[in-house]
């Protein structure tokens, strides 16, 4: 009985092959652990880290935006902590404020809110509390000089509707309301006024812009800030490097960047640094590639429509 039954040998080999294939599949599809933190962060690896409400609490929001409810502010009673956290809950599972270590997470919240504070401020040089204490003073542009209606095939203007600036990172122009409305699945093209009626939606639209590239194959402001983006050779030649400076480039292009140390850029940086200090991270965290004074725009305004 020197010979084994040949069909049995085949069966054993087949079995081993199947086992090997199963092992390979199991190894390659080993899923990273996902965590669930209730309503605020659900079913994502990012939720395994701290969430925004763990390190950014209502008193900190009040510190950052301490003048927003004084009688001279335009949006008294509109903006609050709860609407920010509710809006953020949609994007935390995608990495907003939950990427990297605690410093990066807090830094991203300060960076995002720095943009918001600068764009909604009614502070000026001699304002009480200083010019940086007045973020979230506005929820809309006060004296629009035009109706911001551009010929657009995809997002034609609705008659009688104006597309002036509204929201936390103010949205201007019909095509931007259209695009962001599509992203949020809310009909902002017909109802841009929703952004000045609902603070949660206004924050959501702003975080959506922060998390979404302007064009395919480009990074988002989130990507360039948290270090998820590797500059190409072209980027390096155009002096675009990861950091806060590039977030301004993504969001505003050559309206703010590549113009030297202009006020519009410095004002956003000042808000970011002020918030870093108030949150206890400290402005020393902000150092690498902080400005975009020398950066060429990702999307030069001569060849593309800009978002603001
Ligand atoms: C969570 O934070 C750690 C550092 O504390 C970081 O290494 C890791 O990448 C973060 N997780 C995610 C999914 O970003
Ligand atoms: C405000 O917007 C949020 C987010 O889109 C939505 O869930 C909520 O129902 C809105 N609130 C009102 C009063 O329309
Ligand atoms: C790099 O820049 C050059 C000149 O601006 C441009 O023609 C080329 O398409 C760019 N390459 C990439 C990959 O973007």
Task: Produce the secondary structure layout.
Elements: H1 6-28, H2 52-55, H3 58-64, H4 81-91, H5 102-119, H6 174-184, H7 199-211, H8 221-226, H9 233-237, H10 244-252, H11 263-278
Helix pairs in contact: 4-7, 5-11, 6-7
The structure holds 2-acetamido-2-deoxy-beta-D-glucopyranose (3 copies).
Key descriptive features of the protein:
mainly alpha; binds 2-acetamido-2-deoxy-beta-D-glucopyranose
The description of the largest β-sheet is: none
Distance between the termini: 86 Å
Rg over CA atoms: 24 Å
Q: What general outline do the C-alpha atoms trace?
A: globular
Low-confidence stretches: 8-14, 16-27, 304-308
Q: What string gives the helices and strands in order?
A: HHHHHHHHHHH
**Domains counted in the coordinates: how many?**
1
The CATH topology corresponds to: Lysozyme
The level of helicity is 25-40%
Bound molecules: 2-acetamido-2-deoxy-beta-D-glucopyranose
The second-level CATH architecture is: Orthogonal Bundle
Mean pLDDT: 90
What fraction of the residues are assigned to beta strands by DSSP? under 5%
Number of helices: 11
**Strands, count:** 0
* CATH class value: Mainly Alpha
Pairing-aware structural class of the strands and helices?
Answer: mainly alpha
Task: Please characterize this protein's 3D structure.
By secondary structure, the protein is mainly alpha-helical. It has a single domain (34-286), classed as Lysozyme (Orthogonal Bundle). It has eleven helices and no strands. It has helices at residues 6-28, 52-55, 58-64, 81-91, 102-119, 174-184, 199-211, 221-226, 233-237, 244-252, 263-278. Helix 4 packs parallel to helix 7 (199-211). The chain is globular and about 55 Å long. 43% of the residues are buried. Residues 8-14, 16-27 and 304-308 have low confidence and may be disordered. Residues 1-29 form the signal peptide. Disulfide bonds join 149-157, 257-292.
